[in-house]
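Suppose a colleague, Dr. K., hands you the sequence of a protein chain of 441 amino acids and asks what its three-dimensional shape might be. Before reaching for any lab equipment, you can write down a predicted structure in token form. Begin with the sequence itself:
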Amino acid sequence: MAVTPFDSGLYRDLFHDTEIGSLFSDSAEIRAMMLVEGALAKVQGQLGIIPELSAAFIERSCREIQVDPTGLTAETGANGIPVPALVKAMRVAMEAPDHAQYLHWGATTQDIMDTALALRLRQILALCEQRLDAVLARMADMAQTHATLPMAGRTWMQVATPTSFGAVVASWGRPLAELRARLETVRAGCLIVSLSGAAGTGAAYGPKAAELRQRLADELRLGNRDASWHSARDGIAGLSAWAAQISASLAKMGEDVLLMSQSGIGELRLGGSGSSSTMPQKQNPVAPSLLSALARNTIGANTTLQSAAIHRQQRDAAAWMAEWMALGQVCMGVGRGLAVADQMLGQMTPDAEAMLANLDDGRGLIYAEALQFALTDRMSRPDAQQAVKELCQSVMADGGNLRDAAVAKWDEPGLAALFSPAAQLGLAPSEARGFAQMIRG
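The predicted structure, expressed as tokens, is then:
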């Protein structure tokens, strides 16, 4: 197995996400850094910080020349950062030392790497937005369609009281909708230009430092904090926390789907399930299992990223390197999870007959709470609780049905109306429809 299954050829179709992965490739990182270097030269030329002719040459060269990332390996290993080797390689490739001398003028490695990261994160967040919207749209349709489809609500892994499948779907979707609403805040926190120089002061640019940073932000369509964020990693930590929460919400759905589709329950039918190597009758629930596994890894990587936000002094290589190791896994995990969830929801169908069978096994015990509250018009709540408990024990011991036993005991045929899923769904249908309307609206 590869060090990380995300980059494994064997496990590629299970864990890897092609679109996210392409943005965390060596070539994508190098290309993004070169675009930043070109944009920096352009705005420096506009402000007269470097010769305008050299600026134009550098900008064009940064779009045209090619740099092989593997050629930077040795120097990156020695320096701990790739930009010195990259700048050297770019100057050689430009074949114009008089112009190339102005490349990377006044910037520090972290300015280039962090700004290039922001460019790539912008594309990653756009992909996540599209996928999250698709997942929510599927959930809205499912919640609306099955708003009144009764099923057993379960607490502590035990049948509790009736709910509807639509309400269950809505419970999966509402946290995701809230996280979707936070996306602009996440963007504002991490899609930021970095141009602060060696110690975060921008001293190399003199009185034009602030204007230069703003012009670079405008050129690259990034935000500007008007301050260094070399050691202020709250934006990256915020993105990571958001991704971990998305992953956790998807995993909650995955865990529920696993339980609802297991043998003996059969409330959900999953398309595209996996096969066993020895048991031909099995269809393994791959997608919901993958959602749960991805979330566990993403949450673990998020823990690393939150600790990596602790930077010493003005710049901290150790914390920064820890961020590099974890951020790709967080982005891959949330991106892949959203894609898997969309596919799973598109192939998943509820089995109404199985849901009804699991709701009431013929003894009517799921309606015990409803009976208990109905009896409070003639006795105290504790007495009603005790009376229903004793009646349930009698039904479990001797057989029969709680509905018939209650009607006979209290000689009130009207109690039978309580023993219906439709009568006990409460707010479940309106919650399902409300969620659908919120997403569609």
